[in-house]
Design goal:
Blueprint lengths: L1 H19 L10 E4 L6 E4 L36 E2 L7 E2 L5 E5 L2 E5 L6 E3 L15
Antiparallel strand pairs: 1-2, 3-7, 4-5, 5-6, 6-7
């Protein structure tokens, strides 16, 4: 009795696993659908791709369409000067404070306490170097 139960359970589990693993792929062939109202059957055929009508290229001149001018993407404008709490800023290796906003780096001016957008002239400017 126990042996029959185990065999039935294994067969049932195999059946469930086998039926759940099948994928249903719709066919692109003609299908027959029986109609309940009429005894006639309805045939669904896949619609063929519509081919564009060919024009005589010798008789007509090519039509040039005007392409709209490409619009420049709006870049966000970043201010040259911002005010940031020094606790939110990060420290560089040489001790200067900086703050990053969306890939733009602002460096602290120790003379007025504001943060300025990076410029090459900041390297030699003593206002951007911390006092020792």
């Amino acid at each position: 009795m126990l042996k029959k139960t185990v065999i039935v359970l294994i067969a049932f589990t195999g059946f469930l696993l086998g039926s759940c693993g099948r994928k249903i792929i719709p066919s692109k062939t003609t299908t027959l659908i029986p109609s309940k109202e009429n005894s006639n059957t309805i045939i669904n055929k896949p619609s063929p791709a519509v081919e564009p009508s060919k024009t005589d290229t010798v008789a007509t001149a090519p039509v040039e369409t005007e392409k709209p001018a490409p619009k420049a993407e709006a870049k966000p404008e970043f201010p040259k000067v911002i005010t940031v709490n020094d606790n939110a800023a990060s420290k560089s290796v040489d001790g200067r404070l900086f703050y990053d906003v969306l890939g733009h780096r602002y460096w602290r001016n120790y003379k007025d306490g504001k943060y300025y957008l990076f410029d090459k002239s900041m390297y030699n400017n003593p206002d951007f170097k911390p006092t020792k």
